[in-house]
Design goal:
two-stranded antiparallel sheet, Protein ARV, Arv1, membrane
């Protein structure tokens, strides 16, 4: 149950204070009969994780607002393993958007072609391109961080945790679908805002995971974008339709 999970994570020293990022041995103490007391951080003298009492909707809202405390709660003090599925779903959303734009640019108004388009491989090609771009983006980030702060990424677990944080912080791409469904004159502006929001979320995830200042994560994001565009340009020069 919940108590077993907490004891297991405490044995691994996996808890973090959401305020100061200090280590903690427990999130709360169970006095039985439904009486719980939130643990106090020894470093900052604040509750280790106030979000354990919050509704998941409130936690999600705080994460959307890119609050570092919410990110620490999700990454360090919960057992969430949806990053892989979330990544695939976000890539599908992006591939669908590109596939839809590709069909709109075909200038073909024959309704019978909709069935034919559904059977073509353009959607899977768009999915492959989106996967290539995101992989290149992440590689650029890892190279930059490993070069700037090699002591932060010494262990395999550090890479895995950062990758998990980056995958979870791409949840903003889910907004691509409603932006396309409710299409209007400002759709290109909405898509640009979604892109910026995803980059801000990525930056906050890097900052929280590695406990860095605000400048270095943005430097890593900037280099990741450059590396992503560089890889795409390279494949285009090789004759690939990317």
């Amino acid at each position: 149950g919940r108590g077993v999970l907490q004891r297991a994570m405490a044995a691994l020293g996996a808890y973090r204070c959401i305020e100061c990022n200090g280590e903690a041995t427990e999130l709360y103490r169970d006095y039985q009969r439904g009486v719980l007391r939130i643990s106090i951080c020894k470093s900052c003298q604040k509750p280790v994780d106030k979000y354990i009492e919050y509704d998941p909707v409130i936690i999600l809202i705080n994460a959307v607002l890119c609050k570092a405390q919410a990110y620490r709660h999700i990454l360090f003090n919960t057992k969430i393993n949806i990053h892989g599925k979330l990544c695939i779903f976000c890539l599908l959303c992006e591939a669908y958007l590109r596939w839809l734009q590709l069909q709109d640019s075909s200038q073909n108004t024959d309704p019978d072609d909709l069935i034919r388009y559904a059977k073509e491989w353009d959607f899977y090609r768009m999915f492959g391109i989106a996967s290539l771009e995101q992989t290149s983006f992440f590689i650029g980030i890892f190279i930059t961080l490993w070069w700037m702060t090699p002591e932060m990424l010494k262990r395999k677990s550090d890479f895995i945790l950062l990758l998990k944080a980056l995958l979870l912080s791409t949840y903003g791409k889910l907004l691509l679908i409603p932006a396309v469904i409710w299409e209007h004159d400002y759709t290109p502006l909405c898509l640009a805002f979604i892109k910026v929001f995803v980059l801000i979320s990525n930056s906050q995830a890097i900052r929280v995971t590695l406990n860095l200042n605000r400048i270095l994560p943005w430097f890593a994001i900037f280099f990741g974008v450059i590396f992503e565009n560089g890889v795409v340009c390279l494949f285009q020069k090789m004759g690939w339709d990317v």
